[in-house]
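Page 47, continued from p. 46.
Same chain as before, 107 aa.
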Amino acid sequence: MTISLETAVRTWDPETSHEAAQSITAEDLNIVERTILRILTSEPMADHELFKVYELTRALAPLPRVAPQRIRTIRKYLELAGFVEASGLYHLTDSGRRARVWQVTTP
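Result:
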């Protein structure tokens, strides 16, 4: 699955979001998608944890820099496409709030 650049930002998002979306290439999105799936295949986790692991992975491999919001958006597209699902578990964020744990969908 590849996320379309046209759908990477909502029409009502601020202009800075549109500028950020335009700065990301389709190839970058594809790489980030595959990386997110690979990370979630190794261990189910919440979005905030997924971003931290992505950043650690990025320190070791040439991956595009993306914001936590972009990681959540891509994970959501992967969910809508049926590649990722909620596990039914929750982890706590750094601020103590519950966050859904995501996992790769089992066939």
